[in-house]
Structures are given as structure tokens and as C-alpha cells.
Amino acid sequence: MIKQNRPRILITNDDGVKSPGLLAAADAVSEISEVTIIAPLSQQTAMGRSQRGNPQAMLEELTLTSDNREYSAFACDASPARVVGHGLKVMPDYTPDLVISGINYGENLGNCITSSGTVGAAFESAVWGIPSIAISLETPIESHYEYSAQKWDVAAYFLRYFVKQILSKGFPDGADVLKIDIPRDASRDCPWRVTKLSNNSYYRSNIKNPTLQSRISDAVVSKQKCAEEKPDTDVYALAVDRVVSVTPLSLDLTAYNSFSCLDKWEQG
User: What is the pLDDT of residues 191-240, one digit of tens each?
Assistant: First the structure.
């Protein structure tokens, strides 16, 4: 449980520091926390937990303006995870109580999350021992790389709700990141469900009539729910039942069930 009167919340994303979704996240929690914004200088969608960036990049201070207020923010020309890590390194006296990555353009579901810059930034802060939220709003694929108009109010409502729960009750035991995905048509009355991460790919990339001369840009990305999708997964919750999905994630990627099999292999 966080006992201080004004908890510190660091807000980041992968869509870039000028994303309306990032401002929506800041507005959602600014009245209940001390907000610090450190985000990529430009669009960094699908960078995962990449540690790439301009070697000469540093934190650049700027002012962001929403309908409600102005925020002092920092931008850095690097991938989301690199931005978070760099920000924490150069501000050793600043330790946030919670990190929020988002609100992202586009839901992050299933085994595709390892390519998500939104989730990657949250995992980076979790490595530093800071509990983190990765929150995403379902949007059309064509909006994933541009700042199109979206209704952020419901996602902001749920973000504020979960942040207040965390601040009063503490972060869930065993979790390093809470991944929250909001259906595009959700209302504030929409139910939310604790879900498992689907083993299936939610985003599919295909090339029509592929040849060795096909270009990367020839691939067409689509959303496809697996026919065998289990009802307790994040994909099923959002894509089928149209409820808010809340998936607790851990940094521990170990496949423990494989131990007994591997122990039977003969040594060298």
C-alpha cells in the first residue's frame, strides 16, 4: 500500500510524447498523483522492449497542453523501453510509485504483446522494481501509427479506477505489470474481467502471392480471433464478450512444466 499523500506516477507510451492518448492518461490521474511524463520523441509502435535509440539523445523538456491543464514533459529520441530506462538513470533521486504506459492506440492481446512498445516500456520499469500498467484502447489498425481522433474518456475512467485501487490496496501479488485493454465501444458501466494471456496470435501478417521479391511493406496486417480461443483469455474477453480485459503479467517467463522432461535428458 502506498501511504504518501501525493504518490508519484511516471507516464510513458510508444506512440510518442505528443499522443492524445498519453495526455488522456495524464488527465486521468493528475488529481490523485504527482505526474511526470517521459516518452519517446516520435512514434515507436511495435518496438517491443528494444533498447535502440539515437546515441546522442538526451531528455528534451517541452510543455504539453490538454483541455484541462498544462504538463511539463520530457521527450527522448529512443525506443519506449530505452526512454524509460534512460529517464530513471538520469534522475536517480526520482523513483515513481507506479508507471503507466499508454493510453495506447490499439489493443495489445495474446502472444503479440512481446512486440508491443507499450508493454515493453511497462516491462522495462518493472525490471527497475516499479509496478506498472500497460493500458490500450481498441482502435482500427490504420490508426496505430497516426494520431487519429478517438474517444479516450472511458479508457481514462478505467485507468483512474485501477490506479486508485492500486494506491489504496497495493499491486497484485506476483504481478509485475497489469495489462488493461479497453473495447472501443465500452462504456463506464462495462464489466471488467481478470484474464489469462492468450497463446494465440491476435494480429496476423500475410503477403498475398508471396515471392522472393516480395517486400516487407507488401504484408497486410489483420485482426483474427482463433476459432479455438478459450473464454478465459484476453482475446476472448475483448474480441468476443466485449468487456475490459485485465491481465496480470510477470517478468518470469520460465516454462516450469518443462523441468521434469528436461531433467530426463542425458548430459553431454
Answer: 999 999 999 999 999 999 999 999 999 999 999 888 899 999 999 999 99
Amino acid at 154: V
pLDDT in tens, 43-98: 999 999 999 999 999 999 999 999 879 999 999 999 999 999 999 999 999 999 99
Main-chain phi, psi angles of 240, to 5 degrees: -105, -55
d(CA 100, CA 74): 15
When computed from its CA atoms, the radius of gyration of the chain, rounded to whole angstroms, is: 19
Phi, psi of 250 (to 5 degrees): -125, 150
Tell me whether the omega of the peptide bond preceding residue 103 falls within 30 degrees of 0, making it cis.
Answer: yes
Which run of H or E residues covers position 134?
A: strand 132-137
Tell me the H-state helices in the chain: 20-29, 80-90, 117-127, 153-169, 234-235, 259-263
- Secondary structure of 173-224 as H, E, C letters: CCCCEEEEEECCCCCCCCCEEECECCCCCCEEEECCCCCCCCCHHHCEEEEC
Cell numbers for 86, please give them: 534512460
Q: What is the pLDDT of residues 69-84, one digit of tens each?
A: 999 999 999 999 999 9
Q: CATH classification of 8-200+230-263, choosing from 3.40.50.920, 3.30.70.20, 3.30.360.10, 3.40.1210.10?
A: 3.40.1210.10
For Cα atoms 188, 190, 193, give the angle at the middle one, nearest 5 degrees: 125
